[in-house]
């Protein structure tokens, strides 16, 4: 709709104004604006034009969504500057929620994540498990339904640091949600994966921003944040690949039984473990267990046990200040020389050099003394 106020009657002037209006209408049709006012002045005579979009303004249009996404992204970066201003892993005031920041690229290296939801707010990570590659950035999030050792690299820079949130999967909370969802969720159609990346939808994005907002305030973190974490877990469970977390807890298929054996490994990695014990824990024959274990983790059971021990030893050396010999004994190695050989084979450096590298990368604080707590328990 075009409304024209007082104006001269010259056909030439009217034609010029109409050409300008046509251009504005074309530009308006490609934008999220609903109304544009033009004010032409010629020989002190004011000419006012109000150009209305030929379509009604829709806040959910692609242009409006893009603007809203940009505003939300800037807000997330502001919150990270408050909550996690330094590189490395920052534990939030809420148990199980950590913030990750990297100001420079990190090369491909072995990592081990506990069952968790990793949401990237800026930057990009790539995970490698066997011949599979998982990319997760501000449009993707990563879900690990079982503890998996894999390799990971990070894209980041000083101008655009990597910013991410890690939320540990609380099996008790998941079990409660599964009971509530029991009447609406059917059985998984296919065997799920232990790790996958999936698109970040608007509802989950909103919950993530509300979680960070709550963590800024100690009172909000204590009262509101636990409920928001529960909402995030709910949205992941009801998402397109929530079957993986459900299967890891219910033990109703091969994946769930392997997940049970994995929890046994992480509870008793420092003790005596063999394939017979793990197969019995999973309730499978040796042949079936070996095949299904490799399908989930891309490695053999005993290689997984070895990798788990080495990752825990590295953590003890970096965070708790243990030397190589003490860390080796703590995780179940009887021979310090065997530990050093296998450590260098996995991480590419000796224990001493790897600890130095990790502290430089993550700008680690001085070692802390913490009583070890077994986080993985066998679900009933």
UniProtKB/TrEMBL annotation:
Give the source species: Paraburkholderia rhynchosiae
Q: What is this protein called?
A: HTH-type transcriptional activator RhaS
The gene name reads: rhaS_9
Molecular function as annotated in GO: DNA-binding transcription factor activity; sequence-specific DNA binding
Arranged from A to Z, the UniProt key words for this protein are: Transcription, Transcription regulation
Q: Which PROSITE patterns match?
A: HTH_ARAC_FAMILY_2 (PS01124)
- For the HTH araC/xylS-type domain, which residue ranges apply? 259-357
Return the InterPro entries for the record: Homeodomain-like_sf, HTH_AraC, Tscrpt_reg_HTH_AraC_N
Instruction: State the SMART domains in the record.
Output: HTH_ARAC
Q: Which residues form the signal peptide?
A: none
A Pfam family = HTH_18
């Amino acid at each position: 709709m075009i409304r024209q106020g007082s104006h001269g009657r010259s056909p030439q002037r009217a034609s010029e104004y109409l050409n300008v209006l046509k251009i504005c209408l074309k530009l308006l049709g490609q934008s999220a604006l609903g109304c544009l006012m033009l004010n032409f002045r010629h020989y002190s005579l004011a000419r006012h034009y109000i150009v209305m979009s030929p379509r009604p303004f829709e806040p959910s249009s692609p242009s409006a969504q893009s603007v809203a996404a940009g505003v939300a992204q800037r807000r997330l970066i502001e919150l990270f500057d408050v909550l996690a201003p330094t590189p490395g892993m920052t534990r939030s005031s809420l148990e199980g929620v950590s913030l990750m920041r990297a100001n420079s690229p990190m090369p491909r290296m072995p990592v081990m994540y506990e069952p968790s939801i990793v949401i990237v707010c800026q930057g990009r990570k790539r995970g490698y498990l066997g011949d599979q590659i998982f990319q997760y950035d501000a449009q993707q999030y990563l879900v690990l339904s079982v503890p998996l050792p894999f390799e990971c690299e990070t894209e980041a820079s000083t101008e655009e640091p990597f910013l991410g949130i890690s939320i540990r999967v609380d099996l008790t909370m998941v079990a409660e949600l599964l009971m509530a969802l029991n009447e609406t969720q059917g059985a998984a159609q296919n065997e799920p994966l232990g790790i996958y990346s999936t698109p970040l939808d608007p509802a989950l994005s909103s919950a993530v921003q509300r979680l960070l907002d709550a963590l800024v305030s100690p009172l909000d973190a204590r009262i509101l944040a636990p409920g928001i974490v529960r909402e995030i877990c709910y949205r992941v469970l009801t998402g397109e690949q929530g079957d993986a977390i459900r299967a890891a807890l219910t033990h109703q298929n091969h994946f769930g039984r392997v997940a049970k054996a994995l929890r046994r490994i992480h509870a008793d990695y420092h003790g005596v473990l063999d394939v017979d014990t793990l197969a019995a824990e999973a309730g499978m024959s040796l042949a079936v267990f070996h095949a299904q274990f490799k399908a989930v983790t891309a490695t053999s059971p005993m290689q997984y046990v070895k990798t788990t021990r080495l990752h825990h030893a590295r953590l003890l050396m970096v965070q708790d200040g243990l030397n190589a010999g003490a860390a080796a004994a703590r995780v179940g190695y009887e021979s310090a020389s065997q530990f050093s050989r296998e450590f260098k084979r996995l991480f590419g450096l000796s224990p001493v050099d790897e600890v130095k590298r990790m502290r430089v990368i993550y700008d680690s604080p001085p070692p802390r003394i913490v009583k070890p707590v077994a986080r993985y328990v066998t679900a009933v």
